[in-house]
Amino acid sequence: MYAVEPSFWLRLILVLTVFIGLTTLFNAIIRRWLKVEKPKAFSHNHVNDRHKKIDWTLRIFFIVLMIIGAFVNAGRIGQEPYLFLQPWVLLFVLVFTSEIIRAVMERKYAENPNAYLSTIYQSAFILVLLIVLFSTDFFGIL
């Protein structure tokens, strides 16, 4: 078993705190600028029933895909696993696909015409932040 040094956890907490702080600050600024209400914390915030059905269908599809991917990649022991079936890749694709669907539904059905812009800006900011973090190896922190 590999031991993880205690300073790793402190650095990880630092990176997560900065990431969460930046995204929270950006979201607050965008919501204020576009005059969009703050969504309820830890809720799905579906625009309507159609959005809810599409979102849950997408989630179930990705859960099934993750299970299939686990079996396929488990059968490839000794070989490189398929990257597109890795759980972290599928979860990343699920989150951004879900946000694209949310933006489309907000564009068509939301009461506030700027709600979809807020979703797009937030998603783009998080995507850019994640790309910067991973491409710089977390700025050498981890």
Automatic annotation (TrEMBL):
The keyword Membrane applies. Pfam families: DUF4181 (PF13789). The chain crosses the membrane at residues 12-30, 56-77, 83-104, 116-136. This is DUF4181 domain-containing protein. Keywords: Membrane, Transmembrane, Transmembrane helix. It comes from Planococcus glaciei.
